[in-house]
Amino acid sequence: MVRIVLPQHLRTLARVTGEVTLDVTGPVTQRAVLDALEARYPMLRGTIRDHVTHKRRPFIRFFACEQDLSHESPDSPLPESVVTGVEPLLIVGAMAGG
Q1: From CA 79, how far away is CA 71, in angstroms rounded?
Q2: Residue 61 belongs to what domain range?
């Protein structure tokens, strides 16, 4: 069971509170987790990654195990502690401005 923490605005959009848990079949990668997340919560399609290219949106970041995974390949396996549900995958809306 993979645990996912969404930013507040995406939790509101998906109508969930707290963490989201998903069963991901096959290798647990960013792509697999996001595919499962968008399948379960179709209203999130296009908010985390582009509809066509499936590239991460510029102001979205992925963190797990105190590491920024935002620039990792979407097909790289996630850390074992995320796969086993010990640690969550954090989807964070980045801050910008001056």
Answers
A1: 15
A2: 2-93
> pLDDT tens, 26-71?
999 999 999 999 999 999 999 999 989 999 998 899 999 999 999 9
Task: Yes or no: say if 70 and 61 are a contact pair by the CB < 8 Å rule.
Answer: yes
Q: Does 35 reside within a domain?
A: yes
Does the predicted model carry a pTM greater than 0.85? yes
- Number of Cβ within 10 Å of residue 98's Cβ equals 2
* Domain at 89, CATH number: 3.10.20.30
Tokens of 93: 């809306």
Do 95 and 72 contact (CB within 8 A), yes or no?
A: no
